[in-house]
Amino acid sequence: MRSVTVLGATGSIGESAFDLLMRSGGPDAYRTVALTGAANVARLAEMARALRAEIAVTAIPGKLAELRDALAGSGIEAAAGRDAIAAAAARPADWTLSAIIGAAGLPPGLEVLRRGGTLALANKESLVAAGRLVMSEAQRNGARILPVDSEHSAIFQSLNGEDLDCVESVTITASGGAFRDWPIERLSRATVAEASCHPNWSMGQRITIDSASMFNKALEVIETHEFFGLDDRQIKVLVHPQSIVHAFVSHADGGSIAHMGAPDMRHAIGYALNWPKRAALPVPALDLARIGNLTFAAPDEKRWPALRLAREVIRAGGAAGAVLNAAKEQALDDFIAGHIGFTDMAAAVERALEMCAREEGFGTSPKGLDDVLAWDEMGRRNAACSAGAA
Ligand code: NAD
Ligand code: MG
Prior knowledge:
The protein folds into 3 domains: about 1-145, Rossmann fold; about 155-265 and about 285-290, no CATH class; about 315-380, Rna Polymerase Sigma Factor, Chain: A, CATH 1.10.1740.10. A 7-stranded parallel beta sheet has the order 4-3-2-1-5-6-7, sandwiched between helices. Strands 9-8-10-11 form a 4-stranded mixed beta sheet, covered by helices on one side. The chain is built from 17 helices and 11 strands. Helix 3 links the parallel strand 3 and strand 4. Helix 14 packs across helix 16 (about 370-385). It has helices at about 10-25, 40-50, 65-70, 80-90, 105-115, 125-140, 150-160, 190-195, 205-215, 215-230, 265-275, 290, 305-315, 320-335, 345-360, 370-385, 385-390, and strands spanning about 1-5, 30-35, 55-60, 75-80, 95-100, 120, 145, 165-175, 235-240, 245-250, 255-260. The radius of gyration is 20 Å and the shape is globular. It is an alpha/beta fold. The structure holds nicotinamide-adenine-dinucleotide (NAD) and magnesium ion. The site of magnesium ion (MG) has 4 residues, from helix 7. Magnesium ion binds next to helix 7.
């Protein structure tokens, strides 16, 4: 029986993974080692009971008693806190999904790589903040990373049997998010509620807002650079409102191989779960006759400055990715809290990148977790809304 761990089980990706595991036999088909979550311990306990997990861990120490109560009589261990999540990730499991949101996903992801495990990676932030470190830990320990971000799963699948050296470029698509068709002047007044509605994908709130600002695509451009080792000129973005073509790989002979499918994350999660085989998944079949038109347009970098910042970060190298990711997380917190406007997010990230570059330069790529965390802290500090006034 294969053993599995899901980090960030109670989120949007985690729920989709849970759905796939339960549909394919649940505890009769998989031995679940660990499930982790944060505030929603009732749901975490429910999932742990359904999958008969060995341990359930909440990120929040103050929620431990509640988690223990919810697991009473089940024989499932309960634990809490950052270190407990990392320790749960370090427990041997054949397949581990990292579906934690944000830089908090980096330490447990590294634990999986250090034990030579298979890491299905939805947590793009760990590649953005510490791509070199993540990829080298995987290589050093013979671990495997399977991309779960839909565009990166699409590239991975399109590259099957291809020689990466013959690839001219890869193109990832973006729906354009909630404000694709808004007049640019209106963007500065966009509210949190308006930014939290995605036209095609059902996702957590943070990534949905990042889709509206195109920061999600900016992270994905950097993720593509780090994971596939392509330089920024080889990575293209197209706005594709239907979200059917997720990515395509273009070769020197003029041919391109595209990956298509309904916008349902259970495809990419299920592909990583069953890899290298394919299994039937509860994803709607593609009905192109019904969809009728697939349209594409070059993104407007005035509307979405995040894309320009991603390219600058790739060219700057060193710790610039850690700063961009942290600054973006801070700016997003400030937007959600109502302290700054929608378009102020990109301005805050740009300011943080400039201030860090001026103070320290971006140095070399972070070699260890402490190094990443120091850059992360600097990125957050310089992006915080008070930094603008200082
Ligand atoms: P979400 O906010 O819905 O869920 C996040 C999960 O992480 C939850 O289980 C939450 O309890 C946990 N968590 C939150 N803060 C934590 C912390 N500090 N420490 C430990 N755990 C914490 O997020 P999501 O939309 O499911 O996204 C998860 C990851 O997958 C992100 O990296 C996102 O970029 C990536 N991703 C998501 C989608 C999607 O469709 N939602 C698509 C592609 C990639
Ligand atoms: Mg994506």
